[in-house]
Here is the input.
Amino acid sequence: MKNFGLIGYPLGHSFSKKYFTEKFQKEGLHDCTYHLFPLPNLKDFPRNLAFQESLVGLNVTIPYKTEVLSLLDELTPQAQRIGAVNTIHFKAGKSIGYNTDYVGFKNSLLAFFGAKERPKEALILGTGGAYKAVKAVLEDIAVPFQSVSSTTKEGALTYDDLGKGEYHLKNYPLIINTTPLGMTPDTHSLPNIPYEQLTTEHMLYDLVYNPLQTAFMQKGIDAKCWVKNGLEMLYGQAEAAWNIWQGK
Here is the structure.
């Protein structure tokens, strides 16, 4: 058997097991299985994972995308640059870390733009592991951005700064939520930004994909903004991870 899985905590929100299980069935891969490994902490990684000898690859989700780096044998140059890992390949006795969030988000974001002019500036809400891939993409496609954090970090605004003076939302036509706020089961939560400043020119991208329409997105819909969830990104990063595990 070839075993794959997802580590993080909690994992009740994840579509990954369903996605890969259906993929294996559709493609007739009867020797492949996908498991969820909810880990309250990483101190025993990977000793507490089942099926170690036949474990080919893992996806990594909240809150371990940065914490897992120090536990891996190797990192790809892109994962090193981004500073976060969401895909692990076990190969030749080594654990190798990749970041496929980058390609999943980049392709999804460019599709979101479509034929529209790229926004002149963006806000990235949250500064965790998912933020790091989003940051790298915006740097590479030349969209200036400002990060926002609930805690004071160098270079990041606080949520209390938003809406005032130069930080009025009119100056940030693209707003990306990289936090888990609004994710199942806490579907009523959302980032604390001045939603009354949204206009029809705004684009709201939520990396959350469960539920498919988040409270953050609903605020955008109410203001007649363009909105998008993270499901397409999920599929994109999952397929990129699968290609890595297959040696493609």
In short: The domain at 2-99 is CATH 3.40.50.10860 (Rossmann fold). The radius of gyration is 18 Å.
